[in-house]
Amino acid sequence: MRKTEVPESVKIVGNNIKDIIKEKNLKVRHIAHDSDLDIEALRRYMLGKQIMGIDKLIRISKALNVEISELFRKI
To answer: What is the pTM of this model?
Structure first.
Protein backbone atom coordinates (compact mmCIF):
# COMPACT_ATOMS: atom_id res chain seq x y z
CA MET A 1 0.00 0.00 0.00
CA ARG A 2 1.23 3.49 -0.89
CA LYS A 3 2.20 5.93 1.83
CA THR A 4 0.37 8.71 0.00
CA GLU A 5 -2.39 8.60 -2.56
CA VAL A 6 -1.47 9.51 -6.13
CA PRO A 7 -3.13 12.83 -7.05
CA GLU A 8 -6.12 12.66 -9.41
CA SER A 9 -4.27 14.88 -11.91
CA VAL A 10 -1.59 12.18 -12.32
CA LYS A 11 -4.29 9.65 -13.17
CA ILE A 12 -5.83 12.04 -15.70
CA VAL A 13 -2.47 12.61 -17.42
CA GLY A 14 -1.92 8.84 -17.57
CA ASN A 15 -5.37 8.37 -19.07
CA ASN A 16 -4.65 11.08 -21.64
CA ILE A 17 -1.45 9.30 -22.67
CA LYS A 18 -3.38 6.05 -23.00
CA ASP A 19 -6.12 7.77 -25.04
CA ILE A 20 -3.63 9.43 -27.42
CA ILE A 21 -1.87 6.11 -28.02
CA LYS A 22 -5.22 4.51 -28.79
CA GLU A 23 -6.43 7.40 -30.99
CA LYS A 24 -3.24 7.32 -33.05
CA ASN A 25 -3.24 3.51 -33.19
CA LEU A 26 0.27 3.35 -31.74
CA LYS A 27 2.04 0.62 -29.79
CA VAL A 28 2.93 1.21 -26.14
CA ARG A 29 6.30 -0.45 -26.64
CA HIS A 30 7.18 1.97 -29.48
CA ILE A 31 6.25 4.99 -27.38
CA ALA A 32 8.29 3.61 -24.47
CA HIS A 33 11.28 3.09 -26.77
CA ASP A 34 10.95 6.51 -28.42
CA SER A 35 10.69 8.23 -25.02
CA ASP A 36 13.64 6.22 -23.65
CA LEU A 37 11.49 4.63 -20.95
CA ASP A 38 11.10 1.11 -19.70
CA ILE A 39 7.77 -0.24 -20.98
CA GLU A 40 6.68 -1.10 -17.42
CA ALA A 41 7.43 2.46 -16.27
CA LEU A 42 5.29 3.84 -19.10
CA ARG A 43 2.49 1.45 -18.16
CA ARG A 44 2.65 2.61 -14.52
CA TYR A 45 2.38 6.22 -15.74
CA MET A 46 -0.57 5.34 -17.97
CA LEU A 47 -2.34 3.62 -15.07
CA GLY A 48 -1.75 6.62 -12.82
CA LYS A 49 0.29 4.57 -10.38
CA GLN A 50 3.46 6.65 -10.59
CA ILE A 51 4.12 10.38 -10.72
CA MET A 52 6.02 11.57 -13.79
CA GLY A 53 8.75 14.18 -13.83
CA ILE A 54 8.62 17.02 -16.35
CA ASP A 55 11.49 15.46 -18.30
CA LYS A 56 9.47 12.27 -18.79
CA LEU A 57 6.37 14.23 -19.80
CA ILE A 58 8.38 16.09 -22.43
CA ARG A 59 9.86 12.87 -23.81
CA ILE A 60 6.45 11.17 -23.90
CA SER A 61 4.82 14.14 -25.67
CA LYS A 62 7.61 14.15 -28.28
CA ALA A 63 7.25 10.39 -28.82
CA LEU A 64 3.48 10.87 -29.26
CA ASN A 65 4.11 13.86 -31.56
CA VAL A 66 1.73 16.09 -29.59
CA GLU A 67 2.07 19.36 -27.72
CA ILE A 68 2.72 18.75 -24.03
CA SER A 69 -0.55 20.58 -23.26
CA GLU A 70 -2.42 17.63 -24.81
CA LEU A 71 -1.26 15.50 -21.90
CA PHE A 72 -3.00 17.90 -19.50
CA ARG A 73 -6.41 18.08 -21.17
CA LYS A 74 -9.40 17.48 -18.87
CA ILE A 75 -7.52 18.78 -15.81
So the answer is: 0.91
